[in-house]
Amino acid sequence: KWKGDAKRMRDLAKRVCYASVYGATPETVWRVITSAEDDDGNLIYLTLAVQEVRWMHKQWIDGVPEVPRGWQREMEFYQDNHYGQEPVCRRRRDFLDGENMNEIVNFPIIGAEAALMGRATVQTHRDFPLHFAGPGTGLIQQNYDSMLIEAPAADAERVAQRLQANMTWDEPTLPGVCFIAQADVGRTWKET
Which partner for 19 in 32, 73, 97, 126 could form a disulfide, CB atoms 3.0-4.6 Å apart? Predict the structure, then answer.
């Protein structure tokens, strides 16, 4: 587990990375970062200037030139086909409001995530249906990239291993890409 300055720097790097990969402008990345709160509700990056975030964004983009090339491919696909398509189930989205670069480059990422989590959720619900080990147990929450299973303490490690297996696989529609997950065990939601 990360703590102190290492946690803060890791968090900042993740925020720059995630906002940037979705095609955000440096100003949007700055707004995302400066609105981040710590566990006590304090705005932890409020003192960062737009220029500093613009530099971080540029460094990140320069370090992964395949990302802007991917954005260009998504825009070309949309312009040729007049819709976007996610790569896992090949679901499409028609952008009826017109060409919006941010939405178009986001759709394959968000759509693929939804497809992958859908598969993992169905399998996990089969493995741990509601009340599988008594009242209140089972898959009780699925968020965009996580699931929460209530289970007896004696079953916790087995449940965690199965959940991790359900969320880890090589996706045949994305050759060379392996999705991995890590399951945590805790007595409270905050611990996990």
Answer: 32
Q: Which tens digit of pLDDT belongs to each residue from 83-95?
A: 999 999 999 999 9
* Whole-structure pTM value: 0.77
CA–CA gap between residue 115 and residue 89 (Å, rounded): 7
Token pair in block for residue 75 = 């825009």
Give the residue from 77, 84, 76, 80 showing the smallest Cα distance to 104: 84
